[in-house]
Amino acid sequence: MNVKILDTTLRDGTQGEGISLSVDDKLKIAAALDNFGVHYIEGGWPYSNPKEVAFFQKLRKLKLKNSKITAFGSTRHKDKNPEKDENLLSILKAKPDCACIFGKTWDLHVKSVLNTTMDKNLEMIYSSVKFLKSKGLEVIYDAEHFFDGYNANPEYAIKTLQAAANGGADNLSLCDTNGGMLPNQLKEIIDSVKNNVSVPLGIHTHNDSDCATANSIVAIESGCTLVQGTFNGWGERCGNANLSSIIPNIKLKLGINCVPDEKLKWLTETSRYISEIANIIPNDKQPYTGHSAFAHKGGIHASAVAKKSSTYEHIDPSVVGNQRRILISELSGRANILLKSKELNIDFEKDTDKAKKILQLVKNHEKKGYLYEGAEGSFELLVKRNVGKHKTFFKLGGFRVAVEKNIRGHLKSEATIKVFVKNKTELTAAEGDGPVNALDNALRKALDKFYPKLRNVRLSDFKVRIIDPSDGTGAKVRVLIQSTDGKDEWNTVGVSENIIEASWQALVDSIEYKLLKE
Questions:
Q1: What is the third-level CATH fold of 394-450?
Q2: Given this model, what pLDDT does residue 293 score?
Q3: N- to C-terminal Cα distance for the chain?
Q4: Please, how many CA atoms are within 13 Å of residue 297, restricted to the half-sphere of its CB?
């Protein structure tokens, strides 16, 4: 048994709140999906807007190697023949390999939304599918609200599927459009459907009851051979079934083929790339592909994983292109320090006293407000400073930061800094969008001629957290900085009652981390 994947990230996924993709964005994601090996890429509804039309025109030029271009649409209008229906004609103009059209299953929708008769709806389904098939297209029929429709009127719901089958549909995808089904309910209905239709079945679920992925897996176990979903679970309301979880579940848990074996290791990269293109912050807690999916913080957990990874990991993270992370915090044990230090090419196995010392330093620092599980760059520097592997690249002579607001209400930030580098004194100034940005610009400007590789370094994220709000304006703040050189990313931390001082600590760590790497 093989299961085919229909990815609807570019159509149903873009209906999620806060997600908007340009034509170029969609083309980049389509290329990534094709490279990953999904069977169908549902690019959009060409009848809905000109952007979708432009996308399909350009998509053809990509010459996809693995995926079939799929255009979405609905059954014909109740008062038009298929040959005159603009919606169906727009699908043909898009020149896809496959059409995926939806029709009404629930008698409530037939009467209250379409305002037509039950028999007329069956004719709309049949004639629409038959028309698209007559034009040489593969046709996937989406039975919208199928499970709600079946619960309301099972006999009629089956008739709608039979109408699509009689029209020549290649697949009948059962949709949990409202996302309210539970796995056991869904399985019972699919088992009933199999006794009444012979066309291959598919599944399309939404996540309103947090069961979309589970429902998809149950549907496959019940015999569905096509699964629809979106990468990262994007979609309207609570989202769609998450292909980032469904695909590895099918291959690794069910032992069923759905994408080529060699492609599975690109799952994490594909998931994160799609988020990057859409400018969406990835969900760290996402199974399989999330940054925290294989992160171990508790000392007991880290110790067990060091001996045998399967004690606290359900799969080898490398299988899906992810990696294990050992977190450092006040909850850490010696095993965390030993494992993390091995990642830094520092072996404490024969010097457990140093490991204990660093563990105590971590706990003391975190008591003051530092957080190393989100600042691995600062942790690496902490270790190297205490094992003699650190190097001082510059020393601070002093800095001044000024913020000015003019009569027009415009804010201007300027930083002046003095640093000592290689027995030389550098005094420089720079402006920035804010005081921290100005200080960062001034520091890198002062170091530029000594360390030109810093030109590629920039701040990619900046977070401020009040550690104890009850202290009011005298509370300590924790600043977490994410930096990148265009290739790698690293995080550093600083803590102080003064936000500029905390930012300075994190900035210095960021620069020193980069220079040590070089």
A1: Double Stranded RNA Binding Domain (3.30.160)
A2: 87
A3: 50
A4: 10
Work out the burial of residue 108: count CB atoms within 10 Å of its CB; fewer than 13 is exposed, 13-18 middle, 19 or more buried: middle
The amino acid at residue 349 is E
Between 434 and 388, the more confident residue is 434
Kindly state the percentage of the chain with pLDDT values over 70. Answer: 90
CA distance linking residue 444 with residue 419, whole number of Å: 11
147-160 pLDDT per residue, tens: 999 999 999 999 99
Residue that has been written with the tokens 């149903």 in this structure: 12
28 Cα distance to chain centroid: 15
Q: Which residues contact 2 (CB under 8 A, 6 or more apart)?
A: 225, 256, 257, 258
Residues 6+ apart with CB under 8 A from 437: 413, 459
Query: For residue 166, how many other CB atoms are within 10 A of its CB?
Result: 14
Instruction: Supply 379's token pair.
Output: 């942790």
Distance from C-alpha of 246 to C-alpha of 7, rounded to nearest angstrom: 11
Dihedral sign (CA 37, 42, 46, 49): negative
Q: What count of residues does the chain have?
A: 518
User: pLDDT at residue 512 above 80?
Assistant: yes
Residue 72's contacts (CB-CB under 8 Å, 6 or more residues apart) are 8, 11, 42, 43, 44, 45, 99, 100, 101, 102
User: pLDDT tens, 39-94?
Assistant: 999 999 999 889 999 999 999 888 899 999 999 999 999 999 999 999 999 999 99
Q: What share of the chain is helix, strand, coil (3-state, %, to 5)?
A: 45, 20, 35
User: Could you name the CATH architecture of 4-278?
Assistant: Alpha-Beta Barrel (3.20)
Start-end of CATH 3.20.20.70 domains in the chain: 4-278
User: Between β-strands 295-296 and 226-229, what pairing exists: parallel, antiparallel or unpaired?
Assistant: unpaired
More confident residue, 511 or 372: 511
CA dihedral of residues 142, 144, 150, 152 (deg, nearest 10): -160
Residue range(s) occupied by CATH 3.30.160 in the chain: 394-450
Q: Which of 81, 488, 29, 439 is nearest to 271 (CA)?
A: 29
The pLDDT of residue 473 is above 60 = no
Helix (H) or strand (E) holding 432: strand 424-432
CA distance 224 to 83: 32
Pairing of strands 395-405, 411-421: antiparallel
The one-letter amino acid code at 391 reads K
Q: Judge contact between 100 and 69, C-beta under 8 A.
A: no
pTM tops 0.90, yes or no? no
Per-residue pLDDT tens for 127-176? 999 999 999 999 999 999 999 999 999 999 999 999 999 999 999 999 99
Three-state DSSP at 188 gives helix
Q: Which residue carries 């799952």 as its tokens?
A: 267
